[in-house]
Amino acid sequence: MSGSIPFYQKRHHHYDRGYRSSELESTMSRYQSSSRFTAGSSSSVLSSSREESRLSPLPKRPKSTYLAVDRDNHVIGYVVPIFRGGEFASGFSDTEEARERDTAQMSRRELFSTSLETEQISRKEAMRETANRISLNKRIHEQGEHFKRMNEDSLMHSPEFVIKPRSHTVWEKQCVRLHCTVSGWPDPRVYKNNVAIDPLGNPGKYKLESKYNVHSLEINCDFDDTAQYRVSAMNSKGELSAFASVVVKFKGEVDEFLPAPRPVSEYGINFQIHIVDKFVVSFGREGETMSLGCTAVIYPTLNRYQPEIQWYRDVLLSPSKWHQMQWSGDRATLTLAHLNKEDEGLYTLRVTTKSGYETHSAYVFVRAEAEVEGAPAAPLDVRCLDANKDYIIVTWKQPAVDGGNSILGYFVDCEVGTNHWVQCNDTPVKFARFPVTGLVEGRSYVFRVRAVNSCGMSYPSRVSEPVAAMDPADRARMRTSAPWTGQIIVTEEEPASVVPGRPRELQVTEATKNYVVLSWKPPGEKSLEGLMYYVEKCVSGTDNWQRVNTDIPVKSPRFALFDLAEGKSYSFRVRCCNSAGVGEPSDPTEATTVGDKLDIPAAPGKVVPTRNTDTSVVVSWEASQNAKELVGYYIECSIEGSNVWEPCNNKPVNVTFICHGLMTGERYIFRVRAVNAAGLSSFSPESEAVEVKAAISPTPPYGITVLECVRDSMVLAWKQPKSIGGADITGYFVDYREVIDGVPGQWHEANIKAVSERAYRVSDLLENRKYQFQVRAANMAGVGIPSLPSDTFLCEEWTIAVPPPHDLEIREVRSDSMVLLWKPPVYQGRDPINGFYIDVKEAEASDEAWRGVNTKATDKTFYKVKNLSEGQTYVFRVRAQNQAGVGKSSEVTEAVEAVTKPTKEIVVDVDDDGIISLNFECGEITQDSKFVWSKNYEEISDSTRVAVETKGNSKAVFSSPAEEDIGIYSCHVTHTDGASSSYTLSAELKRLLQISHDHKFPIPLKSELAVEMLEKGRVRFWLQAEMSGNGKIDYVFNDNGISQGEKYKMNFDKNTGVIEMTMESLTPADEGTYTFQLQDGKAKNQSSLVLIGDFKELQKESEFQRKEWFRKQPHFIEYLGYEVTPECCVILKCKVGNMKKETTAIWYKDGKEIKSDNNLGFTEGVLKLEIAQISKKDSGVYEVVLKDDRGKDTSKLNLTEQFKDLMNEVFSFINSSTPLKITSTENGIRLYTFVSYYNDLLQVTWHYDSAIAFSDRIKSGVVGEQLWLQITEPTEKDMGTYAIEFNDGKGGLRRTVELSGQAAAIAERRARVAGGLPDVVTIQEGKALNLTCNISGDPVPVVTWLKNDKEITSDEHCILKFASGKFASFTITGVNISDSGKYSILVKNKYGTESGDFTQLEVVEGTPDLGITSYWTDPDGNVVFG
C-alpha cells in the first residue's frame, strides 16, 4: 500500500488523504475494497476468501525482505519484523503511513490466523472479530477526518514563518541553537552570509534538524561564526526568508558569574580539553634554541586517541628546519631552532577534538645581537618576489636596532654552490628592495642581507626560501598538471625564421635613486621559443637611444637598470630578438626621473601607555599620516630619567602593542617610529611616564536613571565608576530584564558593542511592560562586575511637558561655594528648553526645605552656588523651563560638605618669552589621575588656540590670546577627592597682553617707526633702537617679508642704532602696514606704521618732489645695469636726462676712477662701458656720477654679487658652439668644437654614456677657441656616442656625435705590422740572415729598422728593402758575432704608429757556408722559417 504514496508526501509526517478530490477518493475506496489486504473488508468477503483457501491451493507468498531502504530505494540497513497484537488495541499512529502499515499488518495477521484456525473458530468469535474490525475502521476514518481539518496540504499555499529565528550573542566556544517554525513544503535551506551551509562539509560544526515543521540549526561557535544567518523556504507558490544574527564575543570578557561554554556532543562523547603547564611570555637571543610546550588533558581518556595539534604565529606553522613539532601523548612541544627575529611574535597552541577546541597564546621576544659594538642588527624577513628566468627581486625589513648610528645601506648576498656566498651589489643600497640580475635559468637560489653603518657590518639575515630562476608560466605548469581530456590539439607553429614583433605594455614598475625596474609582456605571436630582449634608454628631450645590454640579451620580461644619473629623466623601450633578427622597438615609456618615489614615513603621533600587568604595559599610538607601503612600527622604552633606550620589539607591529619584560614598580616612557621600504621615520614624541603595575577591572557604575521613554525604547544614563582599575574605561555594556508581577526575569544584553558615552538607548522593548537595568564598565583588564539592578521603570510614552536635566556633578567645593554642572534633558518635551533653576537644601532637612538659588532662569549648564555655610552638607537638584513652564526636578545629587580642601587655585602666568598660560598644581594625584581642562565647563578640544601641557603639574597655554579667548577656564583632576579649580579670564586679558608684549619685545626703542620725505621724492621709514651690531631686522609689509632690491634700500647704522628703509617712489600698491621686527639674541621687539587713508597725500607729495628734482638737475632715467652681446662682450650702461655741456659723467670701479679710453661711450643719452672678454678680475662695484653746478646724481652696480648670473649669461652665448666634429691625427682621433669665446670659468664636461674618466690614452684640452677630446690608438670599444656639455646654470647646451664608422676606418688605415718577428734567432757565424714582415697602412707607412733601439742604415753588410709598400725586409749578408742583439721594426703614418716584436739574434761560431736563413710572415701574420 505504501507504494501508492507520492514521494513528496512520504517526507511529511502529517500526511493524510484529505488533499484528494471526491472522485479520486471514491476510486481509491473501490480499489481498497477490492484488495485482499484491505483492513476494512466485510465479513462476507472474509468468509468467501476462507472458503477459497480451503478448496484451492494457497498462492505462493512473496519472499519477505528485511532490508531497510531510503526514499530513493537505496538499501541503508536491516529491520527486524515485530508482530504484536497489542499494538492495535493500544492506539493509533500519528502519520498516514504508520496507520496504513498497521492496517496492512492487521489484515495479514487476520488472513494468516484464519487460514490455520478456520475449523476451530466458533460463530460467536467470528462475530466478535467482525464487530471489532468495523469499530476499528470507524475510528481510523474519524482520525483521518481530524487530520484533514487540522492540516491543510503544504503544496496548496506559499511557505509561512509561524515562529521566526531570534538573534543570539554567545561567548566563544559555546553552542547556540537557532529555531524557527515554517508551514509549507519543502524543508527550508539555511545560509550564512548568503552562503549555503553544508553540515556534511563541516562535521561537528553545524547540525541541522527538522521535525514537525520545527527546524533548528546548532552551531559550535568560533570567532568566524559571527554572521547573519538566513532561513529561506520556497515552493511553487512563493518564497519567504527570515534572518537572525549571531555575535560571538571574546572569551576573555567572560567573568566568573557567566556560564562556561558548553561542548558539542559528537558520537555520544563530549570531550573536555584542559591545557595546563602552559608556556609563558619568553625571551631569547639570536642563535639560541627555544622550546614552547603545554600539557593537554582530555577527558574522557581514550586509548590511542590523538587530538589535532596546531601551532600558529600569525599563520599556521608547518614543520621545517626552523620549527620542530612533537606530541608525546599528553604534551605538545614546539622547538625553535636557531632563533632569529623572524621567530618573534604571538604563538598560539590549538588543541582540537570532535567536541571543540582549546587554545593558549603567549608572546616570544627575540633579542638582536650585533657582530661589532655599534654595528646594526641583522635585517629580517628576506623574501624573493617576481622571480623570472634571469631576474629576481629581493625584499627585506629594516632592523629595529641600528647600533646608535644611522644605517648606511644593505648588501645582498646570493649563494652560489654550497656555502659559497657572492655579494650582488658593490655599493650599499638604502632601499629595502633590490633586483638581482644575471641569474642562470633553471638554477635555484637563496639570498641573505647584511646591514652596514659607520661602525661595521651586521650579522647576515636568515636566508630566504629557495627560489628557481625560471619563467613564471613554466613554474605554474609545474605546480599544476592539466587532466587528460582525450583530445589532441595540433597547432601550427610560427616559422622560426620570423623576426619577432614589438613587446607590449612596457612600464616602469619601480624607480629608486639606485635603479629602475622595467616590465613588459612578450609580443602576441604563437611561438616564443628562443625569444630574448634588448633594452634601450634615452635622456628625455633627446632622440639619442642607447642600448643598455649590448653584450647579452635578457630572457625575462623584466630588467633592472643601474648607474643612471640621479635627478635626470629617462625614457625606455625594448626590442625582441631571436635567431631571425632583432624586431621593432616597443612604444617608449613616459619620462621617468631617477630618484626615490617612496618617501620615508612621517613620525607617529601621540603615544599612550596603559598599565597591563606587573611586568607589561599596553602601548598605543597615532598612526603615521599619509604613510605609503607601511611595514609596521618599532617601539623603544626607557626608565624615566635614565635616557637609555631599549627596543621593545624586533619585528614590526601594528598601532597597539604589549611591551613585556619591564621591571615592576619602575616608571617607563615610550617612543615609536614607523618603517617602510624607504627606511625608518623619526621618533614620535615621548609618552608620559607610566608605572609598571597590574591593572584591574573597574568597579560597577551606579545611579542608573531614565532620561527619555517612548513606546518601545528607553534612554538610560549612569554615573562613572568610582575606581577605573588603573586603566581608562573603554566602554560600557547594558543589560535589561523584564519584571512581571514583581518577579524579575532573565538578563538580556542591550548592546553587543561597548558604548563610550554614559548614556544609551535600549530598543525593542514592549510597551507598558516594566524593566530593570544593570551596567558593566570595561577597560584593558576586562569587563567589570555589573552594577546593582536599577529601579523598576515602566516603558510607556512620556507626555511630560518639561523633562528633567540629568548627570549632575559638583566641582570646586569650597567653604562658601560650589560649582554645579548638569546636562540638558535628552527628551525634548513640547517646546525647546530656555532656562534652568537650581534648588538647594541641607542634606538632613525635609523636602519642604528646598529653596531656589537663582530667581532668574540661567541658560548655562553650570552655576556657581555661593553663600554656603562652612561645614554644612548640601544636596542640589535642577529643573528645566520652557514655554509650558518649569518641569519636574532632576535626581538629587549626593550630599557634599562645604569645606575648602588643601587644593591650590589656578594661577595665570606670563613667562620670559611672553607666553600666557594658566597653571594648576595638584598634590594628591594618583597613577590614574588626569588633568581635564575646560572652557565654560566644556572640555577643550581645539588645541590651536589653547594647548594643554602636563608634566607633573598642568598648564593651558594660549597661542594667540584674543577677545574670543575670554571665558571661565577650569581644571579638574580625575581619580582624586574632587581636586578642581577655575579662573575667569575677562578684562584682565588686556593687562596680560601688555605684559606679554613687554616680555616678547624687550629691545628698547628710542623712537617708534616713522616716515619722512627725502629729496627726489624718495620716502624714508626709520626708527632708532638700542641693540648690538649682531642684531637682525626683518622688514614686513602687510604680513609679507620684503628684502633689499631695486625698490627697497635697507640700512642699519650699528653706531647710532638707526634702522631705515628708503623707497624711490610710492605707488597705490604700497598702501598698507609697515613693520620692523627686531631680534638681538633672545630679545625681540617690533614697531609698526599704518599708512592707510593719509597714504594718498604722502604719495602725491612724493610724486611732486620727484618731478621737481628731475626738472632741476641731471639725473638717471635708468639706473646702471648690464647686457651681454652675442660676441660675449659685457656692456655696462645707464640712461641719463637733463644733461648739458658742463655736465660730467665719471666712472668708478671699487672707488677708483676709470680713465677715459675707447671703452667709454655716450650716445643718445646712454652712458656705456664695454668689457671685452670678461673674467673674474672684472668683478667689483661700478659707479657712475653725474655732476654739474645744479647738483649730482649717482648710480651703482655691484657686479661682485651678480657676477655668477652675469657669467651664466655670457656662457649662454659661448654655448653657441659649432657642431661636434671628428678628425684624425697622427696619434688617433680628435673630437672638437669651436666656441665664440673661451673663459676659464666655463664649465665643460665630456660624456661617453657617463662622464669620461681621463687617462693617458684619453685627454681633453683647449687650443684658442677650440675645445678638443683626443683618443689615442682608438679601438672598436671606443665606438659610441660622445657629447660635450656646457653648463650655464639654466640648462646648458649639449653637443653630441656618433663615433662608429670613423673609428673603424681610422683603425684600418693606420700603420700596422701584420706579423711579428720571431722571439729568438740562433745562427752560425758566416751565414746570411733575412727577416721579412708584411706592412699595411694608408698612406704607405714609413719603415724604420732598429738594433738595440737605434736606427739601422742600409749598407753592404745590412741591406734594407721595402717593396710594393707591403713587404719590408732586412738582410745581413754574412753574420758575425758583432751582429748579436735585439732587432725590431717601426712603422708610422698619419693615422698611427706601431712597433714589431723584438728579435734576439744569437751568433755562434762555426764553419761559414753559403747558406741563408730566412724568416717572413704570411698574410695571416704567422712567422714562417725557410
Automatic annotation (TrEMBL):
Location relative to the cell: Cytoplasm
Record-level GO cellular component terms: myosin filament; sarcomere
UniProt-recorded name of the protein: Myomesin-1
UniProt keyword Ligase, yes or no: no
Keyword Nucleus appears in the UniProt entry: no
PANTHER family from the UniProt entry: MYOMESIN-1, TITIN
PROSITE patterns attached to this UniProt entry: FN3 (PS50853), IG_LIKE (PS50835), IG_MHC (PS00290)
Gene3D superfamilies given in the database record: Immunoglobulins (2.60.40.10)
Organism whose genome encodes this protein: Periophthalmus magnuspinnatus
Keyword vocabulary terms for this entry: Cytoplasm, Immunoglobulin domain, Muscle protein, Phosphoprotein, Repeat, Thick filament
